[in-house]
């Protein structure tokens, strides 16, 4: 994966992001403009769409598939498996007395005041959760040796129940992994083909329940993810692309090799959306907007992210399906079921709802003509004149407006409203849902959205962004040059990344600096070896240290970056930063209270050389005149039907400002500028929409 100067002369990179409706593909060649392709997703076998997209990219580039040097894929396989609960059959071996850890969980409830809460069942049923005799204390000392005879019996019983994978989580194994490793060795002797994951490698942190849950999630996803990646690697090899060229995006915003992704399924749950935030952060920095909210709306869902001081916000854990905690570094992304394919429907109370059910790629919105009969957000946008039926995806994708009208008319009769009101209502409900999601990652995190710009992307993001900005008081909307495929573009801007953790609970004032430094060095050594194995040269390696801190007696902690060799003075600087982060996060701090160290963290980064942005030259060379290609009636709330000029994005000059209402079209999206708003292009190829006026 190490890119030499020779490679840079002829290198071809491809980023492919699988979405619910479309699979987005970008080919970047050194010194040339990117080639962009969108192909319908193939939910039954996502790899088919990937191969289709690859072939179309290479056909347009005039090269054989074998010339692709570097392929990065953002996948939804792990995400869909969790959301649909279609995971592998996993068994769990744990310390005697802790069989029901997954059942007990914690006292936390998803909805604090909900009297009738539905608790999802554990991923591993009780008959597949088994105990063995062993005990290790919090300092890592063996209190009771592992009973290997019990281990043999338990593993054989698990295998007789046809498990596809095995998770092992022992008490305090993060302090001493010896017993967990012994179980894995025993399982390999009995059945070498059985996938075994141990908590001391999957999530080597304290807190028994989330550590066990994270390990189980990895074990449950591994059979599904491994089958998919192995199949994809096989297909790529048959097409002349060696499987070593395949890389997979992780939830933390970094990429890993396809082979490594097979054994770290729990790192792939936000694989696709993470790429968009990586690209958005780079755009925000280049455009001079260090604080930004990201809004990625696709066909099935919308993903909201946060960029503060030019960096994506990363959290050290999240919750899947609002029920299953997972303890890994993850981009802070809030996802809701609101996309172009979200279906509008009437509930039992006679109220119109939109989503979370989606028409997806198949059958898709009614206008796609693939059998969809229910009205979607895309159908509403088409009926209201916001989408061009003659040039959808530059005319590469046929749509049928009459189908949209029929679907909307059916719902209108159920609601006793006219079709126009139903279509506009669908957009109002959808925008209200998405505005709420934007508040979750801004206001509820202690940030005022009015202090941020909104970076909108995804195939449908620019269609709704200005309405959301108006609702939240955001002053500027930024539309990147390739918004419809920004997640795929971000895959090509992401570095290799591996995260390592060591739990070290100690009072900061009396913590042994030499011990902490030694532990950091051990983590860095592991990261260096892994990067070296992936072909990264030492000059491209970067080790980022951070430390989790909390006030003594607190349950939760905050992560604070730290640089340099550990000393008492440096730890004190970290404590001061912690007080500031605590105040920014929770609105208060207690500098007089003692601070505890909880975890040491290392992010081992393998830097990927960037291509120069060739889009800038494209906009500098824009034609000297900018006139609308046509006008058409478009419906705006409060304005009704308005004759609206339609511009091609490539025709917009750098030195002009256009007053709304305006619609700007390009291959991968459509951009709405509402009445009273203004839009202009910047030197970087972005469109900047201003709310003032």
Number of strands: 35
Largest sheet: 9 strands, mixed
By helix and strand content, what is the structural category? Answer: alpha+beta
Query: Whole-number radius of gyration?
Result: 26 Å
User: How many angstroms separate the termini?
Assistant: 50 Å
Continuous helix count? 18
Instruction: Supply the number of structural domains.
Output: 6
Mean pLDDT: 90
Instruction: Give the DSSP E fraction (strand runs of 2 or more residues).
Output: 25-35%
Helix content: 25-40%
**pLDDT < 50 stretches:** 1-8, 614-624
Shape: globular
Description:
There is one protein chain. With 693 residues, the protein is an alpha+beta fold. The chain folds into 6 domains: 7-82 and 226-267, 2-Layer Sandwich (Nucleotidyltransferase, domain 5), CATH 3.30.420.40; 85-222, no CATH class; 282-336 and 441-491, Nucleotidyltransferase, domain 5 (2-Layer Sandwich); 342-429, no CATH class; 496-606, 2-Layer Sandwich (Dna Ligase, domain 1); 615-690, no CATH class. Helices cover 32% and strands 26% of the residues. Strands 13, 14, 15, 20, 23, 24, 31, 34 and 35 form a 9-stranded mixed β-sheet that branches. Strand 23 (453-457), helix 14 and strand 24 form a beta-alpha-beta unit. Helix 11 (377-383) packs across helix 12 (401-415) and helix 11 crosses helix 13 (419-441). The model is unreliable at 1-8 and 614-624 (pLDDT under 50).
């Amino acid at each position: 994966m190490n890119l030499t100067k020779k490679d840079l002369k002829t290198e071809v990179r491809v980023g492919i992001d699988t979405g619910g409706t479309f699979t987005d593909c970008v080919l970047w060649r050194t010194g040339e403009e990117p080639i962009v392709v969108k192909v319908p997703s193939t939910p039954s076998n996502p790899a088919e769409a990937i191969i289709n997209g690859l072939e179309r990219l290479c056909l347009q580039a005039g090269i054989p598939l074998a010339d692709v040097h570097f392929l990065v894929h953002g996948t939804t396989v792990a995400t869909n498996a969790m959301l649909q609960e279609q995971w592998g059959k996993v068994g769990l071996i744990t310390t005697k007395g802790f069989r029901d850890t997954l059942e007990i969980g914690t006292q936390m409830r998803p909805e604090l005041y909900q009297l009738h809460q539905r608790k999802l069942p554990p991923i591993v049923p009780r008959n597949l959760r088994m105990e063995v005799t062993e005990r290790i204390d919090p300092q890592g000392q063996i209190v009771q040796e592992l009973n290997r005879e019990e281990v043999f019996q338990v593993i054989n019983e698990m295998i007789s129940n046809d498990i596809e994978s095995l998770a092992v989580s022992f008490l305090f194994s993060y302090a001493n992994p010896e017993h967990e490793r012994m179980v894995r060795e025993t399982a390999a002797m009995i059945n070498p083909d059985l996938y075994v994951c141990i908590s001391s490698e999957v999530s080597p942190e304290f807190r028994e329940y989330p550590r066990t849950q994270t390990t189980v999630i990895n074990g449950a996803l591994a059979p599904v993810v491994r089958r998919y990646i192995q199949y994809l690697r096989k297909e790529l090899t048959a097409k002349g692309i060696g499987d070593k060229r395949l890389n997979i995006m992780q939830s933390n915003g970094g990429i890993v090799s396809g082979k490594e992704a097979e054994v770290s399924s729990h790192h792939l749950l936000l694989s696709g959306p993470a790429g968009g935030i990586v690209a958005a952060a780079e755009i925000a920095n280049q455009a001079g907007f260090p604080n930004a909210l990201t809004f990625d709306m696709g066909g099935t869902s919308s993903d909201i992210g946060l960029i503060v001081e030019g960096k994506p916000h990363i959290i050290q854990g999240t919750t899947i399906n609002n029920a299953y905690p997972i303890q890994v570094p993850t981009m802070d992304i809030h996802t809701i079921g609101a996309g172009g394919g979200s279906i509008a429907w009437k509930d039992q109370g006679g109220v119109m709802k939109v989503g979370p059910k989606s028409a997806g790629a198949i059958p898709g919105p009614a206008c796609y003509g693939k059998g969809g009969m229910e009205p979607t957000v895309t159908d509403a946008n088409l009926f209201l004149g916001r989408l061009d039926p003659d040039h959808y995806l530059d005319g590469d994708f046929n749509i049928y407006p009459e189908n949209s009208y029929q679907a909307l008319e059916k719902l209108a009769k159920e609601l006793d409203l006219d079709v126009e009101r139903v279509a506009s209502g669908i957009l109002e409900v959808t925008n209200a849902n998405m505005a709420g999601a934007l508040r979750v990652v801004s206001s509820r995190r202690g940030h005022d959205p009015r202090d941020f710009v909104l970076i909108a992307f995804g195939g449908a993001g620019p269609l709704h962004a200005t309405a959301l900005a108006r609702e939240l008081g955001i002053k500027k909307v930024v539309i990147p040059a390739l918004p419809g495929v920004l997640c795929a573009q971000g895959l090509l801007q992401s570095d290799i990344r591996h995260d390592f953790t060591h739990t070290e609970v100690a009072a900061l004032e009396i913590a042994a600096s030499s011990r902490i430094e030694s532990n950091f060095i051990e983590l860095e050594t592991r990261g260096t070896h892994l990067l070296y194995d992936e072909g990264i040269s030492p000059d491209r390696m970067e080790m980022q240290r951070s430390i989790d801190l909390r006030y003594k007696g607190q349950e939760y902690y905050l992560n604070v970056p730290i640089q340099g060799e550990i000393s008492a003075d440096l730890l004190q600087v970290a404590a001061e930063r912690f007080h500031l982060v605590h105040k920014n996060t929770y609105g208060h701090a207690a500098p007089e209270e003692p601070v505890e160290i909880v975890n040491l963290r290392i992010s081992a980064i393998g830097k990927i050389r960037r291509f120069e942005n060739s889009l800038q030259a494209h906009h500098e060379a824009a034609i000297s005149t900018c006139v609308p290609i046509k006008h058409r009636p478009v419906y705006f709330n409060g304005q009704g039907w308005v004759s609206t000029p339609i511009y091609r994005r490539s025709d917009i000059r750098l030195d002009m400002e256009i007053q709304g209402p305006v619609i700007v079209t390009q291959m991968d999206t459509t951009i709405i500028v509402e009445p009273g708003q203004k839009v202009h292009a910047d030197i970087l190829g972005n469109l900047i929409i201003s709310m003032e006026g």
